[in-house]
Specification:
about 30% helix, alpha/beta, 9 helices
């Protein structure tokens, strides 16, 4: 049997499995899914878990069942590229013939002293649970600061406002406006929603350090009860430690087949791969589907035909009744993008669940 190991059961890993088992999987291929949890967490909705508007159970999708698929649960500590071994924290190493790295991302703290120690994360299921407890244990009229005004920061602030109307919520962003990756009309719409719902946005903030209960904007102390970090991401440490070429963001350089050029048995998908898309669940899923098609072609002895990956756009929510997005070059604002996002989530649950 040839052992095909998939590290990570997120959007990339799960789409990879679906793509492999939905077509003719060679009978001598054993699929092994390795993940720290026995289910996929719907990461695009972690902001709602943190705010308390979605339950832990709501955000779980069970992994597929297939007679050629086995699952191993635990923490990956390192990958030995020479011996084709995956080292686990509390388990025996796993050998592989083929390997897909789909381990996703973690917070990037930009070397800011105290940021990792004194802020709360929404990057993993367990860290988001802890953030939920911190946010929802704050006494009425407490101060919450969210560092980073990108998609995650905006959705977290809006959802928390809906969950806890008593709290004082502020977004601290280093740019001139929230959602700098979106058109200015979308930013203006979101800024107005925040003004209407008493969420403060502070631009041009340069976080110099974080202490218990204090975020420093250069030398200005900003006092806080809880701080949530949404100020940047990077590939996980296992990927950071791999001795392979990477781009300036730490993502692994891959060829057109998503392989590491010097290790053609090793594929990289999602947030860990240097592809021409910003890290997202949609990009990870689309790339993984393409890699599954490549593998089926190679196993048949054919030359893979690469289709161009086309993403459908980005949607964000402002509580339960409003949203925003970018579909191609068209900006969408109001109730429609919120309904669209709910529909996408429903379809995702049906497809994977």
């Amino acid at each position: 049997m040839r052992k095909f190991v998939i590290l990570g059961g997120g959007y990339g890993g799960l789409a990879m499995i679906q793509g492999l088992i939905s077509s003719h999987l060679p009978p001598d291929i054993e699929l092994v899914l390795v993940d720290r949890m026995p289910f996929q967490g719907i990461k695009t909705e972690y902001y709602a878990l943190a705010a308390g508007t979605a339950s832990d159970f709501d955000l779980r999708i069970q992994f597929p069942v297939h007679n050629q698929l086995t699952k191993r649960y635990g923490e990956v500590t390192s990958i030995d590229l020479e011996k084709n071994l995956i080292h686990m924290e509390q388990d025996e190493p796993i050998e592989y013939d083929y390997l897909v790295i789909a381990l996703g991302c973690t917070d990037r703290y930009h070397g800011i002293p105290g940021a990792e120690q004194y802020t709360n994360s929404i990057q993993t299921f367990s860290s988001t649970r802890e953030t939920y407890h911190r946010l929802n244990d704050i006494k009425p009229y407490g101060q919450v600061h969210i560092i980073g005004g990108g998609l995650s920061g905006v959705e977290t602030a809006a959802e928390l406002r809906e969950s806890r109307p008593d709290l004082n919520i502020t977004i601290l962003d280093r740019g001139s406006r929230v959602l700098s990756a979106f058109p200015s009309t979308v930013s203006a719409y979101v800024e107005q929603w925040f003004r209407d719902h008493d969420v403060i946005t502070r631009p041009h903030i340069s976080v110099s350090r974080v202490e218990e209960g204090i975020v420093y904007n250069a030398d200005e102390p900003i006092y806080t009860d809880t701080t949530v970090w949404t100020g940047g991401i990077q590939p996980v440490k296992v990927v950071q430690d791999l001795p392979v070429p990477k781009d300036p963001g730490g993502r692994i350089l891959v060829n057109s087949y998503s392989q590491i050029p010097d290790h053609p048995e090793l594929y990289v998908v999602g947030d860990c791969a240097s592809i021409p898309f910003a890290p997202s669940a949609q990009a990870a899923g689309a790339q993984a589907e393409q890699v599954a098609e490549i593998l089926h072609a190679l196993w048949r002895g054919d030359t893979p035909k690469l289709h161009k990956i086309r993403l459908k756009g980005t949607l964000g929510s402002l509580g339960s009744k409003a949203g925003f997005g970018l579909m191609g070059k068209t900006s969408v604002k109001g109730r429609v993008p919120r309904l669209l996002k709910s529909g996408v989530l429903w379809l995702s649950r049906r497809h994977f669940g």
